[in-house]
Design a protein that fits this description.
Elements (H helix, E strand, L loop, with lengths): L1 H9 L1 H22 L13 H12 L8 E7 L6 H15 L4 E5 L14 E8 L8 H15 L4 E6 L1 H6 L6 H18 L2 H25 L9 H29 L4 H28 L7 H32 L23 H11 L1 H16 L7 E2 L11 H12 L8 E6 L5 H15 L4 E4 L3 E2 L5 E8 L6 H19 L5 E5 L1 H35 L3 H26 L15 E2 L2 H31 L2 H31 L4 H33 L8 H6 L14 H14 L12 H9 L2 H17 L2 E7 L2 E7 L2 E8 L3 E7 L11 H9 L4 H25 L3 H7 L4 H8 L7 H11 L20
Parallel strand pairs: 5-11, 13-15
Antiparallel strand pairs: 1-3, 1-4, 2-3, 6-9, 6-10, 7-9, 8-9, 12-15, 13-14
Helix pairs in contact: 1-2, 1-10, 1-11, 2-8, 2-11, 4-5, 7-8, 7-9, 7-20, 8-9, 8-11, 9-10, 9-11, 9-20, 10-11, 10-19, 12-20, 12-21, 13-18, 13-21, 15-16, 17-18, 17-19, 18-19, 18-21, 19-20, 19-21, 20-21, 24-27, 26-27, 28-29
Length: 917
């Protein structure tokens, strides 16, 4: 990853040109070759879908979702002038390419209200729901709007197809969200350039992603509102991902690294975390494919494509932009917005906040859980249903038609049910069954009207139109569908052999809700299970991922509760332009979970990886939590604020579906970044203590390792030599001789976990490169001191007679010259310095002697253990430089190898192979 960042930095012109070309090509290609969006609500293998498939084959005139052309006259619809104008409109609409017929209330069975002031004409289209061209629907709406401009008559076009055709793409309100997000970045960085960079990179990734979304419509059914949802997610994650990387770049340049080095480190650390977080979002989104809904596939693929493009922009386009900016990242700073000094995290308010929570963990835990449970409580009353066809703004034709129908005919006329019966042609008994069926349905509770059966030309299929008393989206209508299927229809049909299926938009969404209710728990548990395993691999812990999974479920549940309270119960709905509360669309909880789980991983990984790093350094869980929170809280807060602003901007739009997503996502991110990350995480980690990092050894061996922090692997010995020589030259002394790691140093490095070793080597390497080292001439050995938080470990790295002491001091300037004794005391402590140093060196020397002598005699570890009558483990301890071996084992091995091994300071003999021990 670091090399990717450096390559893009060095080849910035090529990378920038490639991105510009890609954005232009994808944009032009999407306009030339992009397909149409399809609002496909099909639910495979459901009763409603089987009925629709049957209609398409046998009764195509009634298979689609006809448009309702509703008109109301000041006089009556029978007025000659009104009739002339309306019939002219019917003829104009019927002549459009894609319109099969217009069923006029003047000559057909279309309904007219009691005072004959309002009537409904049905516009039947040649294509079925998903295949209908939205441009055709908008053309019909335009003709109705033109008629309404004349006095004495108003007309509107309604129905699900009309509502989806009027959905708007992202526009001015979303752009306003980007402007406000830019203000948050300006406050965070205090620099116009540093603030604008994440926005520019996010827009670049979004531009490429949206081009791919439009091209995808050629091969995948993509919903009308999918671009708005993809843009909402892409902007939020794109700015956040770039923010994380820019923050790390500024930290590295502030510590003295060159722009290219800082870019490589930023991409190798923060960039690696971005790739991990982005991959999690994509996996969560694509996991929705397992739900088996065709409408979900297009939305999942669209959002996944945009997120992928924003990740690619963050790790390629951003380092290229940094190449142009170089060290001037903080150029054009604004004095009022200068960020505070973060060099000492313990002095920040976030450190004090963490310590406050850790001082009283139980009240914080119980208080945070109470808030989440209260917010999540409305979920117990969640009702899933279809879209509210009258929930749009009053300026939309579909809303106007819905209101006209509701006022004059009843709300049930906006979503009739269609019963499809398979009958035997010319069979009188089947006709009698249909008559009985219509009578039974007409007298059923919740039914306003049952239209007599109408058969197709072949006489093998008939339809019965049922008008409910309740609205299409209401729970009462869904219960009516269940009663018809379970009680009314079986009772009327009996053993006649007539097969009757209930369909229509309301029935489709009832079947969708049933399917999602059955599969959603499996989907959630699958995603949570995979995340648990992934977090175990990353953090080498059992309780940390378990806690993260539980807290994620609570925060998502709280977001669900907010959505239910506003959109279903109507609490504060008027504040965001929602005046028609109702059931939550069936697929929204599933989509929200997939998106929110991926987004929450951003903050989870960013915070916990820093806490784990601090714990590995110092071994103090409480200090690690406080330090990790202090180091990341400011960036997490800024990132969360940006996402909340972006998502909230979509709440201000007109589309009720996008409004629901916007509020749910904004609420979840706010809850996750405040109550969860800032209260519950420090409280639970304080209560669990060191148990946070418990990890069974068998599981540690079983699971692979992922270096999420992106630390560079242990450098080659030649690289170590080069760094020491540079440090020596900087201090005006002779270069150090070649450095060779002894067995003791090798053993100690091998005893560390991969993450600890990565931290140690990277810390030393960076300190040398930044000049925060002292290279002191010393007749004897070279001692490398590797700091790990509050503890240090000294290891011998050379047996040469002429070497240097490399004393790595965090934050040091590298200019202070100190004596050998002072440096040694600083590392090991004044009282135990000499003893500790001698024991450390002596253990390494013994390890060298044992290993060399064993090879000299041609003995394996097992053979040596057998001859010395000791254990293999004891031999391995000796060869690792572990000075805790029992003296009896030491003497037995010494005797077998004919080598004198002595731990007493100052002692030494010449072994048979010539080594001084």
């Amino acid at each position: 990853m670091s090399e990717v960042g450096r390559w893009c930095f060095r080849n910035r012109r090529r990378v920038l040109a490639a991105w510009l070309v890609a954005i232009v090509v994808l944009g032009v290609g999407s306009q030339l070759y992009g397909g149409e969006f399809r609002n496909d609500f099909r639910v495979a293998e459901s009763e409603s879908q089987r009925a629709l498939d049957l209609l398409e084959q046998r009764f195509p005139a009634f298979a689609g979702d006809p448009l309702a052309l509703v008109f109301r006259a000041e006089a009556t619809v029978d007025d000659p002038e009104v009739r002339r104008r309306m019939e002219a409109l019917f003829a104009d609409v019927a002549a459009l390419d894609g319109v099969d017929d217009v069923v006029s209330p003047y000559v057909g069975l279309a309904p007219v209200n009691a005072d004959r002031s309002t009537a409904i004409a049905q516009v039947r289209l040649t294509e079925f729901g998903p295949e209908v061209d939205p441009a055709l629907v908008r053309a019909i709406i335009d003709r109705a709007d033109q008629l309404s401009e004349e006095p004495g008559l108003e007309a509107a076009v309604g129905g699900p197809t009309a509502m989806f055709a009027e959905l708007e793409s992202p526009g001015e309100r979303e752009a306003a969200g980007v402007v406000v997000a830019l203000g948050v970045l300006l406050i965070t960085f205090g620099s116009v350039l540093a603030a604008g960079l994440p926005v520019a990179v996010a827009l670049g990734g979004l531009g490429a992603g949206m081009g791919l979304v439009f091209l995808t419509t050629r091969v995948v059914d993509v919903f009308t509102f999918a671009p708005a949802m993809a843009a909402m997610i892409g902007l939020g994650v794109g700015i956040d991902y770039a923010l994380f990387i820019v923050t790390r770049y500024r930290q590295e340049t502030a510590s003295g690294a060159s722009p290219e080095t800082a870019t490589g480190i930023a991409i190798g650390t923060a960039g690696r975390a971005v790739v991990f977080a982005g991959a999690t979002v994509v996996i969560s989104l694509l996991g929705m494919v397992m739900m088996g809904l065709s409408m979900v596939v297009g939305m999942a693929v669209s959002a996944a494509l945009v997120v992928t493009c924003t990740v690619l922009a963050a790790i390629t386009l951003l380092p290229a932009m940094l190449g142009f900016i170089g060290p001037g990242i903080d150029r054009y700073g604004i004095r009022w917005f200068q960020p505070p000094d973060d060099s000492d995290p313990s002095a920040s308010r976030w450190y004090r906040w963490s310590r406050t929570i850790q001082a009283r963990p139980w009240p914080a835990l119980l208080g945070g859980l109470t808030v989440l449970l209260v917010l999540a409580s409305p979920v117990l009353g969640m009702e899933l249903g279809g879209p509210h066809f009258g929930a749009g703004p009053e300026t939309q034709s579909s809303r106007q038609a819905y209101d006209l129908v509701t006022d004059e005919f009843g709300e049930g006329f906006n979503g009739p049910l269609v019963l499809v019966a398979e009958i035997t042609p010319g069979e009188p008994a089947d006709s009698a069954v249909l008559d009985a069926l219509v009578q039974a349905i007409g007298s059923a509770d919740g039914v306003a009207l049952a239209v007599p059966a109408m058969a197709n030309a072949a006489g093998d299929t008939a339809i019965v139109t049922v008008i409910p008393e309740s609205a299409p989206h209401s729970a009462a209508t869904q219960r009516l569908v269940e009663r018809l299927r379970d009680d009314v229809i079986p009772g009327a049909v009996g053993e006649s052999g007539v097969i009757v299926s209930v369909s229509g938009v309301t029935a489709l969404f009832a079947d969708m809700a049933d399917l999602i209710n059955r599969r959603l728990p499996v989907f959630i548990m699958t995603v949570i299970g995979l995340s648990f395993i992934l977090l175990m691999v990353v953090f080498r812990s059992v309780l940390v991922p378990l806690k993260a999974a539980l807290l994620n479920l609570l925060s998502i549940g709280a977001a669900y509760g907010v959505v239910v309270a506003v959109f279903q119960w109507g609490w504060g709905a008027g504040l965001i332009g929602v005046d028609r509360p109702g059931p939550i669309m069936a697929f929204i909880p599933m989509m929200l979970f997939a998106i929110l789980f991926g987004l929450s991983m951003d903050y989870e990984v960013f915070l916990l990886s820093r806490i784990r790093e601090e714990y590995d350094r110092g071994g103090d869980n409480a200090a690690a939590v406080a330090d990790g929170l202090a180091a990341t809280a400011r960036v997490i807060t800024a990132a969360a604020a940006i996402m909340v602003i972006i998502f909230s901007s979509f709440v201000l739009g007109d589309d009720p579906i996008v409004k629901t997503f916007g509020l749910g996502l904004a609420a979840a991110v706010f809850i996750d970044a405040t109550i969860v990350r800032m209260v519950l995480v420090p409280a639970t980690m304080e209560l669990l203590g060191d148990a946070n990092w418990w990890f069974p050894s068998w599981l540690d061996r079983l699971l692979p390792r992922i270096d999420l922090e992106g630390h560079e692997p242990e450098p080659a010995r030649e690289e170590v030599v080069a760094e020491v020589e540079v440090a020596a030259e900087a201090d005006d002394v002779q270069p150090a001789p070649p450095v060779h790691l002894t067995a003791g140093a090798d053993a100690w490095l091998e005893s560390l976990s991969e993450q600890q070793r990565g931290h140690a080597v990277a810390h030393v390497d960076r300190a040398m490169a930044d000049g925060a080292v002292d290279a002191l001439r010393r007749a004897g050995r070279v001692e490398l001191t590797v700091p790990l938080g509050r503890r240090t470990r000294s290891v011998e790295i050379s047996d040469e007679a002429d070497g240097y002491l490399v004393d790595v001091r965090s934050g040091g300037s590298g200019n202070e010259r100190v004596s050998w004794d002072e440096a040694r005391d600083r590392v090991l402590g004044e009282t135990v310095a000499l003893t500790a140093y001698q024991r450390t060196w002596r253990a390494g020397a013994i390890a060298d002697a044992v290993r060399a002598s064993r090879h000299h005699h041609g003995l394996t570890v097992e053979e040596l253990a057998e001859r010395a009558q000791t254990s293999v483990e004891a031999i391995e301890h000796l060869e690792r430089g572990d000075d805790s071996v029992e003296i009896g084992d030491l003497l037995a091995v010494s005797w077998v190898l004919d080598t004198r091994l002595d731990l007493r300071p100052g002692s030494g003999e010449t072994a048979p192979d010539g080594l001084t021990v």
